[in-house]
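Methods — Computational structure assignment.
A single polypeptide chain was analysed. Its primary sequence is given first, followed by the predicted tertiary structure written as structure tokens.
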Amino acid sequence: MVTAGGLSGEHMGADVKAQAAVGPAVGALLGLLALAGCSVGVPDPATPSVPPTATGLATPTITPGHDAAAVAARDMPFSAGGTLAAGVPAGISDDLKNAPGWTAVKENVAGESRYAKADGCLVAAKVRANQSPLVRADDRESTAALFTYLDPTILPTYLKTATLRWGGEPGKPGPVVEVLVLEEPGQSGAKSRAVMARVFGAAASSVYVSVSCPDAATLAGARAEVAARLVVLPPLN
């Protein structure tokens, strides 16, 4: 895993000019996240001396009075990020590899998995710990800070709100987690792309999913399958 903040009158003119540049700015970030050759290169916001940490390697902790099961059973909007236990990262399932037409190209290597579909769509999903430098007042601001870290020209107004699955049983309705999305519609033969991300401030971790497809139609289909299959896994503690 809400409304975007409003703009004051004195900032309206500047924002209009910024919006006019949204195409190049979005292209710059999504170029960084491009999945050409089924690869994705996104720097870890942690300091260089701290290596990326896979979710599965985190040391389980118990927070007194914290009910992890109750948190996992409810939707996880940006405003609910503080209900997570401190320092226990979320994860991402690998169920996309079982969807028709999809194959796993890379499975949980340092917290990253990649998938390819017969129609040319490519997906990369990552989990990162040690994200404290990105943490802001709430998870929405923290997630916007992640996009800005990747490309300083990306403004929060370029980002949309969407949801992914938040635990639950496969194939059944369940809770959702809010994420921010940066979209780049394909033009003149260029691929259509979308990047979905969420920073969990309390857990000092982040998840993101990058989707790249030949056109808008295949991207829409891939995003629907990602939303159904790539479940964000709530922390167990």
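Note: The two ends are 19 Å apart (CA to CA).
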